[in-house]
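User: Hi! Is it possible to get a structure for several chains at once, not just one? Here's what I have:
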Amino acid sequence: MEDIIIKVTDLVAHYGDFKVLDGVSFEVRRGEIFMIVGGSGCGKSTLLKHLCGLMRPTSGEILFQGKNVAAMDEDELAEMQHTIGIAFQSSGLFNSMTVGDNVAMPMREFGNVDEALIDNLVRFKLSLVGLAAAQYLMPGELSGGMRKRAGLARAIALDPALVYFDEPSAGLDPIIAAGLDEMILKLKRMLKTTFVIVTHELESIRLVADRVLMLDKGKVVFCGALDEAMTAPIERLRQFFDRRPDEYIT
Amino acid sequence: MSDTRLKAPDKLNGETGARLFDEARRICRKDIKTLILDLSQTRDMDSLGGAWLLKIAEYARRRGGEFKWEGQPEAIADFMAMLAPALKMKPRPARKEPGMFESLSDALTGAACEFAEFLNLCVDAIYWTAVAPFEGKGFRFDAFLDEAHEMGVRAIRIVCLMNFLLGLIIAMLSAKQVEAFGMQIYVANLIMIGFARELAAIMTATVVSARTGAAIAAELATMKVQEEIDALRGMGINVAQYLIAPKLLALLVVLPCLVTLGLISGLAGGAVWGVFVLGFRPSIWYQQTLGAAYMDDIIQGMLKTVFFAIAIALIGCHNGLRVAGGSRGVGLMTTRAVVMDIFMLICIDIVFAAIFYYLLG
Ligand SMILES: Nc1ncnc2c1ncn2[C@@H]1O[C@H](COP(=O)(O)OP(=O)(O)OP(=O)(O)O)[C@@H](O)[C@H]1O
Ligand SMILES: [Mg+2]
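Assistant: Yes, the chains can be modeled jointly so their relative placement is included. Here is the combined structure:
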């Protein structure tokens, strides 16, 4: 039995009266790449926000390393958030600092790293995402793909056990997107980090995912290993992987 | 002067990395040529270990040596491949602190450039406000009305309140001073002269620069940061015409009106004290106030406001358009605009005071 890092049971979430997540349950194992897929508006981003404690569920349980995120108070939540990394869809880099300082910020705030080593540690993290040369540039001077990677470097600044990544390759050209996939695989291997990734990209699912969760209208349609996902006879899943539009299902 | 070898430990982490760095420092005492790191024993490596590795490479390079590594096993080959560019990077040259004369000359040329930019903006703005519309090049009248409403109508309450309170305060202060001589009726003169020549204009302009000057700077700075200004330019639209001229004209129209209202409010504040506390009959206070000032005094007060309006509008625009960087730049430039505004108001005021003192007495 592999080590379970996240266990979600019967998660229900609402926006006002609108039920976004309806009894979602799944598990993420330590050290794997877990991909969340599904049509636009099916609640993927909402699920991610619940997992990292930015939103509170209506009911249900989210166990992160055995502790219930849904029932944590502010302090416990902050402590939990120091052990995870979040890379936002639009990177969320602070405009007023250099890329290096962006990565150094969580280290200075929460890490107990010697100031003399921080510069080298920052360069190390930036090397892992292939941006060592951009340490002293401002975020405004980066391209879209570089910004995504810099956001990832900041997310892994504190060596988190778990990284959440919202749509890593949306809006990137296929070459850069492939590079990003490669990088995620390497980071997983080298830092033994668990990744929970929201994505639409079929290619990157095939290449990177260990296991896949598919949501539809707030419910889990499928949760299992990648090769199972490629063959399982579930209509919605087949439609997604074969890229068939809605009107073809009867 | 030879190759020096350094053996990396089996697990490279924060602790062993620090030890490795100490060792590297010890053997690098003499000037070395190449520092070779033997990684053949290393099976595992974490972020802190990697950071120490970079620090060792940097140290060797600062000493004029070279840094190489060899024998890395499969387990950390990926790491080393990704670290290679950073390990080979030259250390960043330490930034040289500029000398006194250098920084002085930098500051002077910077100020001169900025002043030239500002003059440019002034000429542009005045052309597009006062000349171009008569050449048939168009003026955004709707935008002007919007701005006038925002800058003027919506500022009336605060301007009146501030001037009224100031009138009250000055009346209180001065009544006490002249009480012993029984000349309290002359408080009316003081208030009239004070507000007509100075206080109404300076008080109102200060309120407006904090309100409107800051708003102009923040608006233009945000537009610049979000590439809206570039979008305008890209469509072939002149920024001075489209954005600055309506603001400038609106402020030119609105500020004298606000100052007039401010003057009336200030007088009212004085009168409230004179009538209700000092006990003068309203008609007497009224006569005394009217008789205190000549048209010259009022003109002097009003003339300034034109220059105040130009200063507030253009300093706001100038600082807004100079913004660099993102959200933080916007804040810095807005602050700078208000500080410059208030300083400029006082400068203009003192020039006028001197002129009227020597020319008109
Ligand atoms: N702040 C909000 N208030 C109300 N409803 C919201 C809010 N945010 C999202 N929703 C609704 O919740 C549903 C799920 O949104 P969510 O952002 O999780 O979708 P998603 O799966 O991430 O979609 P996409 O792939 O397009 O990003 C949508 O139907 C959306 O309309
Ligand atoms: Mg989303």
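Chain B has a mean pLDDT of 88. Residues 48 and 361 of chain B are 77 Å apart (CA to CA).

User: Great, thank you!
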